[in-house]
Amino acid sequence: MLIDAYPKTVVLKDGTEIVIRSLARGDFEQLLDFFTALPEEDRVFLRDDVRDPELIHRWTEQLDLARVIPLVAYDDSELVGSASLHIMPHECMRHVGHVRLVTARSHRHKGLGALMTRELVALAEERALEKVQAHVIEDNLGAVRMFEKLGFKTVAVLEGMVKDRSWKTRNLAIMVNDVANLTQIMEQWIQESMLPSHRVPGDGA
Fold first, then answer.
1. What is the CATH number of the domain that holds 117?
2. Which is higher by pLDDT, 190 or 27?
3. Of 66, 139, 144, 152, which residue is least crowded by CB atoms under 10 Å?
């Protein structure tokens, strides 16, 4: 299984070396610190209350790779990214995966988000998934542009679907891509890159 290939070292656009690996029980404190340190405007649109120690404890203790494949990224001893591939539980959507991605602000616009997404795509391909989807706040232009560079298309915009802490309504964009298309994009990047296993072009996240 590809999950057994981790940890894996990648290099960001600024030359920073990052270790990407599967989430482990020992990541509890770092993962909780990572989410707690996120600015409120980053946390407010996450599906769960990521400041809840009990929730993070469940994530690190009750790993079920048949349902969720979680990855973390470390810059030395600092956890700087969290990404996960969620296998849709419904029989009619068993060919679809859902990707979730959060990176530290200190490591955005360096390609980390794209690199972690690339890992999720490879895992989706291994699971024989055909499509992957991501839910993004429509005016979060950095995230939208990153997924667009990876070939994702906005297939629906749910107006006023989410509210921020001030109860201002925001639109939720549902972005979808075919796994085969993503795999082709990644392979092209690998062929064109001077450090094929490490770098991807574009601004990333």
1. 3.40.630.30
2. 27
3. 66
162 SS3 class: strand
Model confidence at 33, pLDDT cuts 50, 70, 90, reads: very high
Q: What is the Cα 168 distance to its own chain's centre?
A: 25
Tokens describing residue 162: 């989410």
Q: For the chain, what is the total number of helices (H) and then of strands (E)?
A: 6, 8
Residues ≥6 apart with Cβ < 8 Å to 133? 96, 97, 98, 99, 174, 175, 176, 177
Residue among 119, 46, 47 nearest 84 (CA):
119
Cα→Cα distances 184→30, 76, 151, Å: 34, 31, 10
Structural domain harbouring 139: 2-192
User: Does any domain span residue 198?
Assistant: no
